[in-house]
Amino acid sequence: MKIQIINGPNLNLLGVREKSIYGDSSFETYLAGLKQRYPQHQIDYYQSNVEGELINKLHEVGFSFDGIVMNAGAYTHTSVAIADAIAGINTPVVEVHISNVYKREEFRHVSMLAKNCKGVIAGFGMDSYRLAIESLTV
């Protein structure tokens, strides 16, 4: 299986930003563990702080990969364009969040993307990504 993980804005700072919310591990460290856990799958990783680049990546892999795990960061709550990109591709997308967005600010309780996704996983720390991969591989 080919799985693309896409991380949005500020997720390049995992391990150094708001450690009480996001933990103290970089995503690259976590990704190495995921690849070891799932050697039978090709797991690719992409991160951008730019909305249009995230859309371009969705378009690029959305017809050739078997699954996409996407943490769009704050764009989750604001981007009709990313929601439309997800609706326009064939590959199933699982929306993930490291934190429990429902324990945070009210604006984070609304996802523009969720209606176009296979499912949403939130609040399990970095393990949210593993749970999303599990949901794609069953």
From TrEMBL:
<feature type="binding site">
    <location>
        <position position="84"/>
    </location>
    <ligand>
        <name>substrate</name>
    </ligand>
</feature>
<dbReference type="GO" id="GO:0009073">
    <property type="term" value="P:aromatic amino acid family biosynthetic process"/>
</dbReference>
<dbReference type="GO" id="GO:0003855">
    <property type="term" value="F:3-dehydroquinate dehydratase activity"/>
</dbReference>
<dbReference type="InterPro" id="IPR036441">
    <property type="entry name" value="DHquinase_II_sf"/>
</dbReference>
<protein>
    <recommendedName>
        <fullName>3-dehydroquinate dehydratase</fullName>
        <ecNumber>4.2.1.10</ecNumber>
    </recommendedName>
</protein>
<feature type="binding site">
    <location>
        <position position="108"/>
    </location>
    <ligand>
        <name>substrate</name>
    </ligand>
</feature>
<comment type="function">
    <text>Catalyzes a trans-dehydration via an enolate intermediate.</text>
</comment>
<feature type="site" description="Transition state stabilizer">
    <location>
        <position position="17"/>
    </location>
</feature>
<dbReference type="GO" id="GO:0019631">
    <property type="term" value="P:quinate catabolic process"/>
</dbReference>
<keyword id="KW-0057">Aromatic amino acid biosynthesis</keyword>
<feature type="binding site">
    <location>
        <position position="77"/>
    </location>
    <ligand>
        <name>substrate</name>
    </ligand>
</feature>
<dbReference type="GO" id="GO:0008652">
    <property type="term" value="P:amino acid biosynthetic process"/>
</dbReference>
<dbReference type="Pfam" id="PF01220">
    <property type="entry name" value="DHquinase_II"/>
</dbReference>
<feature type="binding site">
    <location>
        <position position="71"/>
    </location>
    <ligand>
        <name>substrate</name>
    </ligand>
</feature>
<comment type="similarity">
    <text>Belongs to the type-II 3-dehydroquinase family.</text>
</comment>
<feature type="active site" description="Proton donor">
    <location>
        <position position="97"/>
    </location>
</feature>
<keyword id="KW-0456">Lyase</keyword>
<dbReference type="InterPro" id="IPR018509">
    <property type="entry name" value="DHquinase_II_CS"/>
</dbReference>
<keyword id="KW-0028">Amino-acid biosynthesis</keyword>
<feature type="binding site">
    <location>
        <begin position="98"/>
        <end position="99"/>
    </location>
    <ligand>
        <name>substrate</name>
    </ligand>
</feature>
<dbReference type="InterPro" id="IPR001874">
    <property type="entry name" value="DHquinase_II"/>
</dbReference>
<comment type="pathway">
    <text>Metabolic intermediate biosynthesis; chorismate biosynthesis; chorismate from D-erythrose 4-phosphate and phosphoenolpyruvate: step 3/7.</text>
</comment>
<feature type="active site" description="Proton acceptor">
    <location>
        <position position="22"/>
    </location>
</feature>
<comment type="subunit">
    <text>Homododecamer.</text>
</comment>
<dbReference type="GO" id="GO:0009423">
    <property type="term" value="P:chorismate biosynthetic process"/>
</dbReference>
